[in-house]
Design a protein that fits this description.
about 550 residues; about 35% helix; seven-stranded mixed sheet; single chain; alpha+beta
């Protein structure tokens, strides 16, 4: 019986070693009797929608040393220190005392240095191909593309979000070696690397360059904290440009200053929130028009004339029009005129007339208070007073863009869904992932999330907003021969719960052609100096961007006056 038990015990151990742990033990044995040289996968490129390369690689090399295979540690340390600018004594000590099987001597070494290393013929020292990430356009899209770590892992931006596609899989060359790692005769085994895939963005580099040039001029003229712009295709919410000035050169990342790097690399368009001010009136007007078309008696018709008073009193708070209505100016306004003149009390009337439940239904439909779902990390969801807690004075202020905080992306998407026929899509920065042969590895689909307003309401609103540019506060965005719609915004900033005196956010949200929008741009200038009205600061920048798109795409005028 004891013999049988012993036999079963031996057989069980044999089964575990050969079958259960066999593969693992074979790899361990191979690892003891081979020296592996890594074959680094090339990181995938990032392109714009037209194939313009935005993030690429340059050939470089990494240098390694196996201490156990080094014959003369002093000579080896001296040679490596001389070649790569290292401390020879420190390196020699590492070679003597380290217990690791392999040390990394240098990364991202130029080919000329790798060739020089070969001349030394140092036992235990070898090099392998590495990749140095390069960005052909420096600062362009710096807060969107992001950057990688020194070992090539995506840390921020699209480099991080799509790292699993870009990274690829390293391979290796395994040479026979003895137990201390010294190479011996025998056949090498080559496991090829699998290079990363190409990430093709929705961005149009030509439009991106136009937007960045416009923001740079705004920055130089008004010395703001920052200037931002997002350009969308309203028909599917593809991001055509996403720019912020100042940026930073992705080829010269300030890695030694984490605070500065965090500030420069943060994508404020996606991650920061602000009170939008009058650009939000686009949403309020859309809700009113749609409710009027549905026959809601609380909504105002296009012919309705709003109360001529320049103030409204709600819950003991006073809401004023920026105009003093002197000599009857800006009195007795229709909705079209209220948009042209950007008169706050008119939009207070709309919000209060529609009521909390109805108005909040539209805020929900326009996706305020929640993320848009863009393919980018760190998106903020904005701030919206809960419907159960909102007071009349809150509702009144939301109507003209106060007591609500949004991201620039949220506002741009909401406006696009208001003028494109009422369709709200999930915005995207990447359209597809491609293999080296050009085949589609994965498609990032266009996603329709919901409807906001009817096509009729959207058409009417777009027409009214065209009037804002042709005849109202957005006139500095007007381009002869082109139907451009838009809305200005000038919002006071709040700090520590109180109005920050002299600090404003100037903005303009525009689109063209107004009857069938193909391009929508939101320009935001944070704390401009010398002037602060959106009509003065932001609208001209939007005009420059639209003119740049017209020139870039050779868009013919729609009408000539």
């Amino acid at each position: 019986m004891a013999v049988i038990f012993l036999f079963l015990l031996i057989f069980s151990r044999f089964f575990v070693v050969q079958i259960v742990q066999g593969e693992k033990l074979r790899y361990r044995a191979i690892g003891q009797w081979t020296r592996e040289i890594p074959v680094v996968a090339a990181r995938g490129t990032i392109e714009d929608r037209n194939g313009v390369v935005l993030a690429d690689n340059s050939a470089s090399y990494s240098v390694f040393v196996r201490p156990n295979a080094v014959k003369d540690r002093t000579e080896t340390a001296s040679a490596l220190a001389s070649l790569f600018g290292l401390d020879g004594a420190e390196l020699a000590e590492k070679l003597e005392t380290t217990r690791v099987s392999e040390l990394t001597v240098a990364r991202h070494v130029d080919k000329s240095l790798a060739e020089e290393l070969e001349k030394y013929d140092l036992p235990g020292v070898y090099y392998a191909r590495d990749n140095t990430r390069v960005y052909p356009y420096g600062q362009a899209l710096s807060r969107v593309l992001g950057f990688t770590s020194t070992d090539g892992t995506g840390l921020t931006g699209l480099e991080k979000y799509y790292d699993k596609y870009l990274a690829g899989m390293d391979g290796e060359i395994a040479y026979p070696a003895d137990l201390v790692g010294v190479e011996v005769e025998g056949e090498a085994v080559y496991l090829p690397a699998t290079d990363g895939l190409t990430v093709r963005t929705t961005v149009d580099y030509g439009i991106q360059a136009v937007a960045e040039a416009a923001l740079e001029r705004v920055y130089e003229q008004y010395s703001p904290v920052s200037a931002q712009c997002i350009v969308l295709d309203p028909n599917n919410f593809d991001v055509l440009a996403m720019a912020e000035y100042p940026g930073y050169d992705l080829n010269d990342i300030p890695r030694d200053d984490p605070e500065l790097l965090n500030d420069l690399s943060r994508n404020d368009i996606v991650s920061d929130i602000y009170e939008p001010g009058s650009t939000f009136k686009i949403v309020t007007a859309a809700a009113n028009i749609e409710e009027h078309l549905r026959g809601n008696p609380a909504a105002f018709s296009l012919q309705y004339v709003f109360n001529s008073s320049r103030t409204r009193s709600v819950d003991g708070t006073t809401i004023k029009c920026w105009s003093n209505h002197a000599n009857g100016k800006h009195c007795n306004q229709t909705l079209a005129e209220a948009l042209n003149n950007s008169c706050n009390p008119c939009f207070t009337d709309i919000a209060l007339a529609l009521g909390t439940e109805t108005f909040y239904d539209y805020l929900e439909a326009f996706n305020f208070g929640k993320v848009t779902g863009i393919d980018f990390s760190g998106e903020a969801q904005g701030m919206l007073v809960p419907e159960s807690s909102v007071r009349a004075c809150d509702l009144a202020r939301i109507g003209f863009g106060q007591t609500v905080a949004v991201t620039a992306l949220q506002l741009a998407c909401a406006a696009a869904a208001a003028v494109n026929g009422g369709y709200y899509y999930q915005p995207r920065l990447v359209g597809g992932i491609y293999a080296a042969d050009g085949s589609v590895a994965e498609e990032i689909p266009v996603v329709l999330k919901n409807r906001t307003v009817s096509e009729e309401a959207s058409r009417i609103l777009a027409s009214l907003l065209e009037g804002v540019v042709a005849n109202g506060s957005g006139s500095k965005a007007y381009i002869e021969g082109y139907k451009i719609g838009g809305k200005t915004g000038t919002a006071q900033k709040f700090e520590n719960g109180a109005i920050a005196q002299g600090k404003y956010v100037s903005s303009f949200l525009g689109f063209f052609p107004s009857a069938a929008p193909q391009y929508l741009a939101l320009v935001i200038v944070d704390e401009p100096q010398g002037a602060y009205y959106g009509s003065v600061v932001a609208a001209p920048a939007a005009k420059e961007i639209f003119q740049g798109i017209i020139d870039l795409k050779n868009i013919e005028p729609y009408e000539v006056k």
